[in-house]
Amino acid sequence: MTKKVYLAADFGGGSGRVIAGRLHDGRLQMEEIYRFPNRQIKLGNRLCWDFPALFEELKNGLKAAARKGFEVQGIGIDTWGVDFGLLDRCGNLIGNPVCYRDSRTEGVPEKLFSRIDCRQHYAVTGIQVMPINTLFQLYAMKQTRDPQLEIAERLLFMPDLFGYFLTGNHDNEYSIASTSELVDARRREWSFDTIRELGLPEKLFGKIIPPGTLRGYLKKDIADETGLGQVKVFAIGSHDTASAVAAVPSQSRPVAFLSSGTWSLLGVEVDEPILTEEARLARFTNEGGVGGRIRFLQNITGLWILQRLMSEWKERGEEQQYDIIIPQAAQARIDTVIPVDAAEFMNPASMEAAIADYCRIHSLAVPQSKAEMARCVLQSLAAKYKEAVQGMNRSLEKPIERLHIIGGGSQNALLNQLTANALGIPVHAGPVEATATGNILTQAMAEGEIADLEELRRIVARSFEPTIYYPETR
Fold first, then answer.
1. Cβ–Cβ < 8 Å for 117, 176
2. pLDDT on residue 2
3. CB within 8 Å of 456: residues ≥ 6 apart
4. In this prediction, what percent of the chain has a pLDDT beyond 90?
5. Which of 196, 360, 386, 410 is the most buried (most CB within 10 A)?
6. DSSP characters for 191-240?
């Protein structure tokens, strides 16, 4: 790979990577240069992210790029949505960011919507109500008079927080801010009417900047420590799904996508938010995208359930490999479908026991083997995707004609085929590294190497060959 590269720092719930990429002959070339674990830690009564350790790993990734002799043109950071850190008046991080799976938001949406009208609220923010959302995390802190909230001067979402400690500049990137349920979907600015109505401190919410904005340069101490010099740091689609959707290799309108990983985010890309009562009742959300687009989508529990099963089996000394268990699941015969978004499967002590208990309580056939358990989870996801697409189509002028599956889940051939069968339309799988792809190419667009989002997607189509799944007839 040539020495001139962009770096994508991609943080997921279980691990993070730093990936180098560059354009060559109209195609994207990428190389993973550093990988590190991420984990949730229990501190007192709170489930948190270990931000100091993650920031140290980010710097280790930058050092790895310097050791390779790369001439880094820019750095972009993407993470999961909704979680945040708080800075005090001296610019110090007050405490480790709390994980969205923490229990502090249990019952909070119901309390909040006893004060405000849920329909009017959706007509402004356009966000699917989920207890994990930033809005409910902050309201929970206010209700308990959390001292961190009382001394906080600025709220930064996870990618904003990394960017701040790299550059010293604090701002809020649009796509990640839009996950908070505190942004006016039409105006694409903070909904200060909502913030005031709930009594949240207005000073927390800084300038919102669009993807493709220069955040600043590496601070001198970071530039010296990593050996990279004063490299540019860009705000890209810093919600990982925003970067992934930017990398959907399609020129059709609207672009229909399924970002498949721990979460499944299924939707279409549109120019303006869809804020109808029908969209609210169907639990669709309007989140910010690259190029001024809106991601009209539904958040669905994704491969989290299967991932937890795999972890449990490994802990019991019964480790399974995906390339073995998935073909076995393809041969399994069980018709059981579970509601993947049910609270029982959010974070149980044992996922296997939670599935078995749910099946017994609801008079469903209980999976009797690991293959049947995996098959049950995957066909349940496909059934949920069908339900989501049916709801989405009711808000569109015409039904979608194909679905692009991107991200790590696009490698799951059984899930892809079950999805094509359930939807009755072709499924195009890939690219796998959609988030890093969108991250890097958005930086290149900010630097003027790429003209616009349409050219970006043409580059993706030239760089990656999709696998196409057609509906099977029985």
1. no
2. 59
3. 246, 247, 438, 441, 442, 444, 445, 450
4. 96
5. 410
6. -HHHHHHTT--GGG---EE-TTEEEEE--HHHHHHHT--S-EEEE---BH
Tokens for 125? 């923010």
What is the token pair recorded at 7? 């770096």
- Give which of 205, 227, 231 is closest to 218, Cα–Cα: 231
Q: Which two tokens stand for residue 395?
A: 């808000």
Listing DSSP states for 262-284 in one string gives: SEEEEEEEESS----HHHHHTT-
Query: Which one-letter DSSP state was computed for residue 93?
Result: B
Tokens 């493709």 -> residue: 212
What is the distance between the alpha carbons of residues 415 and 432, in angstroms, rounded to a whole number?
14
Residue 50 has pLDDT above 90, yes or no: yes
Which H or E element spans position 437?
helix 434-446
Q: Which pLDDT belongs to residue 117? A: 96
166-199: pLDDT as tens digits: 999 999 999 999 999 999 999 999 999 999 999 9
Could you tell me the pTM of the whole model?
Answer: 0.93
Query: What integer is the mean pLDDT of 62-73?
Result: 97
Q: What is the CB-side half-sphere exposure of residue 416 using CA atoms within 13 A?
A: 26
DSSP label of 407: S
Q: Do residues 97 and 83 lie in contact, with contact meaning Cβ atoms separated by under 8 Å?
A: yes
Residue 169: per-residue pLDDT: 97
Give the strands of the sheet with 213-217, arranged side by side: 27-37, 15-24, 4-11, 71-78, 232-235, 213-217
3-state secondary structure of 78: strand
> Which residues are marked as active site?
240
